[in-house]
Every structure is written in C-alpha cells, then in structure tokens.
Design goal:
The protein is mostly helical and about 325 residues long. It contains 16 helices and 4 strands. Strands 1-3 form a two-stranded antiparallel ribbon. Helix 7 (about 100-110) packs antiparallel against helix 8 (about 115-125).
Length: about 325
Amino acid sequence: MKCKANLVRLLLLLGVAAALLIGGCVSKLKEAKPIIPIKEYEKMLFGKMTADYVGNENCLKGCHTHDKLALDFKSSTMGDQLKQSSSGMMVVDCESCHGPASELMAAIEGLDLKKDAQAILKAHKDNLLDYQTLPGGAKSLICLKCHTANATFNIHNWNGSTHAGNDVTCSSCHPIHAGADLIAEPRAISTLCMGCHIGNAAQFSLPSRHPVKEGRMYCTDCHEPHGNANANNLREMTQRETCGRCHTEKTGPFLYEHADNTEQCSSCHSPHGSINNNMLKLPVTFLCKQCHPMHRNSSTALGALSQTYTRCTDCHSMVHGSDTPGLNTAGGTLTR
C-alpha cells in the first residue's frame, strides 16, 4: 500500500515537472527577439547614437527655410504638428524621422550652399538616416513608431501583410513631403498599384473589365492595401461579400441557388477583366458545360450545335439564383 502511495506521488511530481518544463519552453518561444542586436537596430532607426537633437529651427533656418519640401510639409497634417503642443514638446519634427542632427550641423558649419553642395549632401548622408540604404521594413518602422497606436486599425495588420513582406514601404504610397494630403489621391491609387501589379493592369485593358482606368472605381474598393486576414486582402471575408458591396442583387440569399458557385464569384468571372462579355472566364456555353456536360440537347446529333449556337442563359437567365420555381417539374432550374 505504501509503495503504491509513493508511486502516485512520484507520478504527480513528474507531471508537475513536465508541465513546468513545457510551460517554460512555450513562454520562451513566445519571447520577442530582435533580428539584430538592439544597439545596431537603434542606430538603424534613429541615426547616430552620439548625436543630439537640435530642433526644427536649426534644421530649417540654414538650408530648408524656403525649400519646397519644407513648405509642402508645413501644409500637411504632420507638418501642422510641428507647432509645440500644450506639453511644450514637439510631437513631430524633422528629427523624428531623420535622426538627431547635431553632428550634421558641426560637419556643415562654414560650408557654402552653392559652392559646397556635394560636401553638404555627403554630410547629410553620413550623419542622418540614409533612406536610400535602409531596408523597407526599417523605413516603415520609422512611420509605425507613431502610427501603430493610432485609430486606423488596418495599420495594425501591416507587419504581416503581403506588401510589407515584399519590401513595400509606407512612403511608397504616401508622399510625405509632396503636399498637404499625405494620403494618395484616389485617382493616383490605381496608378500606384498597377506600377507593381502589371498582370492585373493588363487585364484592365481588356474589352470587359471593371472601370478602374476610367476612374470610376479604385483598387482599394475591393482590396485592403495595409493587409488583413482575408484571401487576396479582400475588404470582406469572402468574394461574395466583397463583390456584393456593388452587385447586391446577385448575392441573395435565394431559394434556388447556383450551388457552391454563389460563394466564389471567380468560379465564373475574372475579377479584373476578360475578353468575354460580363468578365466571364469562357464564353457562356463552354463555361457552363465545364460543370453541366450533359443536357437534353447534348446528344450526339445535337451536341456540336448546342456548343456552337446555343447560349445556356437564353433559357437559364437567372444564373445567380432565383426564388421562383423553374419551368419543369425539377423545381429550381434558374429559368425564371
């Protein structure tokens, strides 16, 4: 009896030890670890660790007072925050993004803007953050220092997005110094997207297409550029919900639905454009016969004619679904 009790205690102790070991391993795996040592990472994001902050006046009075970049930036949302807040601290200033500038000031002291332009540019490159050599992720992190905690919740998905994984940065789409509006204009959005998504851009030139190039809709109407958990970064959870934002009459629910095709609009339609009417992937008859090869007029005698001269939608006009029974005894044949 005593041996049995000791065995039970031993098993309990082993169980507790195993639980602690597993828990410790899991917590260790969950710990965030920097890709590179912290000091190096800080240098990458904040510039020289030996430099001090000098303030906007010192940045602007010497070179950038009448610079178009400075004037455009002052008129922007971020530039408006250059004014001191109630706390007496700068919310956003030049050095928030470009790094502390005291060593730059020492390097360019006494240099002439016209005669020593190359030396001044080199001093900027050596003493401030060099955006041309920074990896895309680091550039975006400079923006996310402030914007991660703001009320735009879609930015929270950025680090795990397809764009972030392909070295696209915030400044690739948001022109920081280009004017009052830091958000790309709607008409410019499609041009930005098509600069990388060349295949989709070509589809928007096909005879049947969404009117993106005409400026009547934009890529962001369907896709979330900052990333989300949906396939292809769609605005809604499914294709049906995304397409249904405009094509409400096609979404149902219907009493007689077109089987599983109602969930995947792309089963029949090419969403960016097609050579076929209504952006269909194939001409009507060939498209339908992929799933419905047999029909009463699909006999050997009439098969060739049915594939060439008959459109299924001449009879089955309610292809997305219907609440009315069909013309025959089978019920829902999507004929009315």
